[in-house]
Amino acid sequence: MHTLSAEQSIMPMAHSFISLALESDQSSDDPEVALKDPQVFHLFRHYKDSLASWYDLNDRQRHFTDIVPVKARYSPLLLSSLLAFSAISLHNSSGSESWVDQAEFYHLESVQILLKVTSNIEAVVADGEVLAAICLLRSFEIISENLGSQSHLQGYYSMLASTSIHLDSLSNLARASFWNFLREDITMALIERRTLMIELSDDQIPKDLVFDDDYANAITILLGQVINVGFSKAVHKVSAERFSSLGKKLEAWKASLPDSFMPIVNDDSVDRSKRPFPFMGTLHGWHAASIQYYQAAMMILADSEQKMQENEVGDRCAYLNTLSENLSNRSSEICALALSSDSQAVWVNSFGPIAFCTYDLGDRWKKEAIVRGVKCWGSRTGWPISKIVKACERSSQYEIDLMRLYDGQRY
Q1: Which spans are transmembrane here (predicted)?
Q2: Which of 60, 125, 155, 333 has the fewest other C-beta atoms within 10 Å?
Q3: Among 120, 112, 217, 204, which residue's Cα sits nearest to residue 167?
Q4: How far is it, in rounded angstroms, from Cα 341 to Cα 84?
Q5: Cβ–Cβ < 8 Å for 77, 113
Q6: What is the pTM assigned to this prediction?
């Protein structure tokens, strides 16, 4: 398949709007001057106060909250990327059309600056500011799905996907950006049930799991590896040993977790129609996200392994019953963790696991509750949720298979 270069994928849009960038008084060419404009500073503050935490979900050092805004005061690329994302977020959450032109304007400025660094992808990866900007622009393209601006950075994504990324050689900001790029890729892969754009290796798993966010990043790599196997078109060719190896890695990760990861659970609800999920509170957002990733990975493995099973009809009924219950329980935990959180970062990161897992949720009350939650989070974060809602409304394939098997036995 022919892969577009970054320059080929960006140029048409850049040329068609270039005059707009040259005429603006709010250009990010001089960040300090631009930030004196009240509207620009409003966008800047909205990013820092409301959006940066999305990126710091698994980062105890808070690079996107504390480091990116400081660097953006002196970096036209970071500032324009930050402002583009902030403006499109305000448009989606408020419904105000006034932010659309601002969003497209700063997106264009970012792309024009990126054209200057297309020749050396290794330098792009090593440069934390550039990688951080690409993460911000990726978010812009995800949540602006109806504005026709997606995929202008596809050339960069293709180049990043083909580049061997050694985390130990990256700056702190570049590493934080890598984890964000990966989580964004995982979110879209789970929603679309596809493999990641990038290949992952065991070398990228944090070796010394000292802090809680180290465990969170480790499960991120493991889930990515599972996605690349389970969603592969050649999954039927994957050996049982490969599935077993991934399962053992997941269980080893789970067994090594500190007590801080254990949710605080309250399952005292009497009326399941009003409160179908238990309360599952966590001490930090990365605790909720990590458990969700673990459960999603286990579900993908179970789903992939069942496709390789060749059971008789009688055995298959029992097998599917057990599998359906297993997947439903894991799906319920993913949803309960999201519904029990008041963190926008957790909600946004939950969209991928929820879109994937509710396929097997089963219970009507649970599906209705999670759809209400998703719609609420979408309105509050500005995230597009139509695909997620559709995923929540689908029936489980295992429920369908069971009904067919029972019908076949009945007659």
Answers
A1: none
A2: 60
A3: 204
A4: 27
A5: yes
A6: 0.87
Alpha helices, H only, 162-231: 172-192, 212-230
Straight-line distance from the first to the last Cα atom of the chain, in angstroms, rounded to the nearest whole number: 49
User: How far is Cα 341 from Cα 358, in angstroms, rounded to an integer?
Assistant: 18
274 vs 244: CA distance, rounded Å: 39
CA angle 256, 222, 243 (to 5 degrees): 100
Domain ranges of the chain: 1-199
Tokens of 311: 């059971």
- In DSSP notation, 249-279 reads HHHHHHHT--GGGS-EEE---S-TTT--S-E
Least trusted range by pLDDT, from 9-13, 177-181, 241-245: 9-13
190-202 pLDDT, tens digit per residue, is: 999 999 988 887 7
Q: How many CA atoms lie within 13 A of 22 on its CB side?
A: 6
Is the Cβ–Cβ distance between 165 and 125 less than 8 Å? yes
DSSP 49: I
